[in-house]
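Reopening: MFS transporter still failing for me.
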Amino acid sequence: MPSPYRALFAEPGTKAFSAAGFLGRMPLSMMGIGVVTMVSQLTGRYGLAGGLSATVALAVAAVGPQVSRLVDRHGQRRVLRPATLVALTAAAGLLLAAHFGWPDWVLFACAAGIGTVPSLGAMIRARWAALYRGTPKLHTAYSFESVVDEVCFIFGPIISIGLSTAWFPEAGPLLAACFLAAGVFWLTAQHATEPEPHPRERRGGGSALRSTGLQVLVATFVATGTIFGAVDVVTVAFADERGHKGAASVVLALYAAGSCAAGVVFGVLRFSGAPERRWLLGVAAMAVSMIPLLLVGNLPLLAVALFVAGLSIAPTMITTMSLIEEHVPRAQLTEGMTWVSTGLAVGVALGSSVAGWVIDAAGAQAGYGVPAVSGAVAVAVGFLGYRRLRRPAAGRGGTVEQHGEREERHLA
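Support: Ran it again with your exact input. Result attached.
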């Protein structure tokens, strides 16, 4: 591991909360695909399976920011444990309802209840920010967390699908729930590194989404999430049309591996200048990388194209976290990070559904037009909102060096 990453863990408690965060984040990539695999095996109804998976994603998108807002006010331990217990109870209900063939409305009610699952990625990044705010180490920490995210997305679906198909249908979602419980309760037992809560007066507060800069980031990442959701669905269909459906998991793993590799390298680099420029360049790179997917004709070329496309993901996500630091009050940092994840989740659900409709109508190759169009929308939103990103609100986060650069630029 490069020395900047070793330096991250010099502070006491960093290894423990990072490990807990990794364990608790595995369900992010395991639960949705696990529900699809479980329900399709038990009932053979892929429409029901997809609907339940989308319900989980949308419920997390709707409830997640509210959970994170409570965390900012009352602290991680006081909020995460009861929220996780609600999510675990709902997950248990979903497994039982699927196993015993209960009515569909019970399945959907339980799937919606899983929406209280907390955003562990935001919680861990908030701990890093509390430790290293205003130092170059925070950039490295965000890079490390992006790599952890990609590792989860590489191995999570493989574990979930593998267990549900080789052992019993409920095994994937069950293990995801166990990971969630272990990760959250281990993390909340660590008091020394927990960020201080910021209780607000009754007359103050409001949602972090009131920040115009955060609005731009969230809107852009709805389009970006549409890219991710569409790529997943279309790649499975593309491989299936060529008689190698099982190869889709390997191809998609290479997509995540490209992002993982870029994140490792990005974390050891040091940049000068305004982060919003790097962010807009990253969004544009993601959009351009979708164009070759319209031209590939076989799986090996698709694998190469997706690996290259993945190279722009982690750097863009890392820079996004830095921008949230500038545009969201410190007392609402966890909520701000969760709103970006919410935008991604909404986009993934949208991309999956639209891509499925296009595939049914015109085939898998045409389906890659969905991420291409979504990339163009992301770039358009980014350009239109660029001026808002150049003006962080007074009193918001951001390093002393970044604020100094901005003052010099505006005086010039």
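The CA atoms of residues 282 and 316 lie 5 Å apart. If you still see a failure, please send the error message rather than a screenshot.
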